[in-house]
């Protein structure tokens, strides 16, 4: 331990400086990435457990940095959220996802919902109109689109959030509650907000079947969803043991490496045509 208070303060502020420099470097890099077309979307399929039918996919952003290679969203989304840059990133993601879904719609593929992650800061009164305009621009049927939001979105002003959700539903776009069980909000919002699907967070799926608490939590989320008339999906399913537990519990859908990792659009489409179309 460093007993000299002056020295530890010096070290501390140096660390802070380094941290701030890192943040500023990533932020300006991300700003450029948006302009240079360095962001790309990967797509991960979702399957219905009972039928093994592909019922949807999730769009997940990556940053193709010429210097660093593929940068995962965990390394820039939290920063984008704290700086507000997430709004521009989100606009690009929605645009790109709708453009891609419209290509699949036009190619005559059987419809499935493509889910886009929407951060709390993007969930504003102007979102429904932007979604409507994007669907119209690509002539994409609203039944192709879903928005995944997290509990943090719901913790803002109730009336405002409900109004935005209602507007989104009126368009025919579905809403799911992502990372379910990891937030701190009360369960009462589940019956108050118009949500279609609960998404069990990967942190619970991981412990199945070995960890009794994770099994209890996942099982409880499934039965609660059933009683509330919501669909329920588990993310991060990697093993057949997890799949059988979820099937026994009555979970509707699964997503995870057991079926497929997130894939670039052309790989996703190839797998879709070769393996996932029943
Ligand atoms: P998320 O929305 O909870 O997405 C699920 C994450 O789990 C993805 O990580 C996915 O690749 C990963 N995953 C899926 N199946 C498995 C599995 O079986 N095993 C394991 N170990 N992982 C699995 P990814 O793509 O790195 O994304 C991380 C997070 O970044 C996302 O978590 C989401 O919160 C955020 N994110 C990604 N794309 C976007 C976006 O376009 N907009 C916003 N706002 N956030 C995004
Ligand atoms: Ca998600
Ligand atoms: Ca998650
Ligand atoms: Ca999430």
Automatic annotation (TrEMBL):
It comes from the Bacteria. The chain holds residues 402 to 679 of 681 of the full protein. This is EAL domain-containing protein. Residues 23-276 form the EAL domain.
